[in-house]
């Protein structure tokens, strides 16, 4: 494989991951307690969510984009632009998968990146109205349930 081909492949992979990161962070902000993502965005697999949540550089890039403190990909910009509308409508045309993945992202941000979560919430929900509307009954804003204990070994 040539250096150019390798570089092109790396750029393509990075672009895909950046788009996914933008989606996931937007989902997290949209959710503010469980709202779902808009239908024009593709479904996201749990494995993809794990890849993004475990990539510090991608998280930082898209948090900065959403906070208007750094550059955005075209998808990141679109998501940043659409967040207020989605919050206002309660994201009523969203899929169950987006709801589930957004709750995973929210729990991650609250537990592992609380300062980033606070900044995102402060920017997109400064009065706390969406959190009050969506958050009171949502599992996303509560502490995650502990994992079930492993079954005892059989004799």
Low-pLDDT ranges:
31-39, 136-150
Which structural class matches the secondary elements? mainly alpha
What would CATH call the class? Answer: Mainly Alpha
Helices, by number, come to 7
H/E series: HHHHHHH
Instruction: Return the average pLDDT rounded to an integer.
Output: 67
Strand content: under 5%
Please characterize this protein's 3D structure.
By secondary structure, the protein is mostly helical. It has one domain (10-135): Insect odorant-binding protein A10/Ejaculatory bulb-specific protein 3 (Antennal chemosensory protein a6). Helix content is 64%, strand content 0%. The chain has helices spanning 3-31, 46-53, 56-66, 74-89, 96-112, 114-124, 129-135. The N and C termini lie far apart (53 Å).
Q: What is the structure about, briefly put?
A:
This protein has 155 residues and is mainly α. It contains seven helices and no strands. Residues 31-39 and 136-150 have low confidence and may be disordered.
List the main descriptive attributes of the protein structure presented here.
single chain, 155 residues, mainly alpha, Antennal chemosensory protein a6, 7 helices, 64% helix
Please write out the topology.
Layout: H1 3-31, H2 46-53, H3 56-66, H4 74-89, H5 96-112, H6 114-124, H7 129-135
Helix pairs in contact: 1-2, 1-3, 1-4, 1-5, 5-6
